[in-house]
Every structure is written in C-alpha cells, then in structure tokens.
Amino acid sequence: MAKNTNEVPINGLYDDEGRILEEQAVEGRSDNEAESAEESAEVSLSKEELAALCKESVCPECDMFKEAEAIRLRALADSENVKKRLLRETEELKKYAGESILSDLLPILDNLDLALSHTDNLSAECKNFVVGVDMTRKIFLDAVRNHGLEAVQAAKGTEFDPEIHDAVGTVQEPSLGDNRIAQVVQNGYRLKGRLLRPAKVMVNKL
C-alpha cells in the first residue's frame, strides 16, 4: 500500500519524502537536542557561577593567579586603612568638639584673673567683692575643667619651655636663674592634652 503523501509525519518518524526514519536516526536527533540543551544551560550560568568555575580552572601556582591574589590583598588592606583613618578622625573630632567654644571662654578667665591681680590696699567692702569674684572664677574654672581644660604650668621660677610658653619679653633678676620665668603675663591652657593656648611669660636672661 502506497504511503499517502498528504499525511503528516507523526512524532518525526517520517522524512520529507514520506519514508520511515530509522530508530537510530531518531535517537541521534535526541542526542543533538540534548547537547543543545546543555549548551544553553551553560550559557545561562550566572556571573557568580562563572566566576567560581573560572577560579576552579586557574592554577594557584600560576603568575596570573598570584597577581590577582596580590591585587585583592592590596585592595583589602587599603579598605582597612581607610576604615581606621575615618574611625580615628571621628574619635578625634568628638574629643575636641568643644575646642572653639572653650577658646572663646578663655578671655573671661583672663578678665577674672586680671581683676584678682589688683586687690592690694582695698577697703573691707571691696575685699568682700573680691571674695565673690574669686569664688566665681573657681566655679567657672571647675566647669571648664570638667570638659578637659587645664592650666599650663608657668609658675615664677620654673624653666622656660618654648613648647608651652610664649616669651613676650625678657628681664634681669639676679635672684632667678637664667632662662627662668620671671613673670606670667597671661595663663596658658591645654584641652585634653592638646595645647590650646601657650602661656605668655617674661623670661629672665642673665
């Protein structure tokens, strides 16, 4: 019985001329289709999967791998250094946040010290006023001391230190040694160990 040319091949078992395909040919077509599917699966790998495959295929002893590893380690080190620097700058900013405010308050202390330095030959009424000024100075000094402010050591007779003292003039006093502080013109202050203002002094020169 002749094959009807109008029939549609079922399940791909006939070729274009109406002949029945061999089972092996059908199986071969299935193998090709399976290979195409595998290729499609490989192409659809994510970037992370491709990176993992690439890393597995690179020999750890080759120069390219060592160079890539060195670049990665340098990037990690740079990132860690940036983090440490930012943390250090943040801590320092917090530590000295009140520096400008305390600097503006120093003239108040200077005026109180100046008022107390002119208390000789005063009447009893004025002396009571001076006591009030002195108490005000102590309260004010205690308040700023709680924020880390402390006076620079600059007593008469101590050795002149250019790191914390500012010489505004020289005098000659035989009773004092050479390069010794003869007079404190203006007190100096530190803020949490950092010099906020040097003490202005007169230095003895023999």
From TrEMBL:
Keywords for the protein's UniProt record, in alphabetical order: Chaperone, Cytoplasm, Stress response
SUPFAM superfamilies assigned: Coiled-coil domain of nucleotide exchange factor GrpE (SSF58014), Head domain of nucleotide exchange factor GrpE (SSF51064)
Subcellular location: Cytoplasm
UniProt cross-references to CDD domains, sorted A to Z: GrpE
Listed InterPro entries: GrpE, GrpE_CC, GrpE_head
Assembly description: Homodimer.
Family statement: Belongs to the GrpE family.
Function text: Participates actively in the response to hyperosmotic and heat shock by preventing the aggregation of stress-denatured proteins, in association with DnaK and GrpE. It is the nucleotide exchange factor for DnaK and may function as a thermosensor. Unfolded proteins bind initially to DnaJ; upon interaction with the DnaJ-bound protein, DnaK hydrolyzes its bound ATP, resulting in the formation of a stable complex. GrpE releases ADP from DnaK; ATP binding to DnaK triggers the release of the substrate protein, thus completing the reaction cycle.
Protein name in the entry: Protein GrpE
UniProt source species: Pseudodesulfovibrio methanolicus
